[in-house]
# Entry
Amino acid sequence: MIRAFTQLLKRLLPLLAISSISQRGLAQGNEIGSWLIYFGNNKISKTFNWHNEVQLRSYDLIGDTEALLLRTGLGYTPSESNFNFLAGYAYISSQRYTNESKTQSNEHRPFQQIIARQESGRLQLLHRYRLEERILEQDFRLRFRYLLLLNFPINSRTITDKTIYAAASNEFMLNADAPVFDQDRLYGGIGYCFKKSLRLELGYLQQFFEDSNNGQIVITLLNSLSFEKP
# Structure
């Protein structure tokens, strides 16, 4: 199964080369960027978990940074429940092109979210409802986000050791003030579960804004190692 996943990577990686043709391409709205993501969701007790996350977005394959995001939070899962309640904080450093020169801005983003999990046969569903307080350098905004995530194991009935799985998601974001529509993100990918606590995904994400859209090649590493004492 690892060999099959490796062959899939070899077929998809040439797509990444397209995004390295021009560092300024995406700034002009006509190139594919890259999005590297690390997700950590680690249990620290039977009911509490620690969320930790790093994201690096680039206008090209790598090197022409668009944004760096650091996010963390503490979650609580009631006993015998499929719900997780989490509050946290994110820091975002963005670099935007203005007249072919870059300007940097920083954002502080407290957030609160609820995650609900479901299963239907092999299909695993995740609903995430998130409220963000976006503290920008000269502005303050409230934003609501809803994410629907689907995971489907291909070579086993559940996502466990040595499992290849398909992943798909859609997330829309709405502002409290005008313009109400912020963006929509549509994602599809293929993943490999090395073991229960470690997965790797390769996929493609299309972002839709009010007056533009762009694509991202996404590579995601997911870690769910438990820190709970035996």
Notes: Residues 15-30 have pLDDT under 50 and may be disordered. The chain has one domain: 2-223. The CA atoms of residues 141 and 178 lie 10 Å apart.
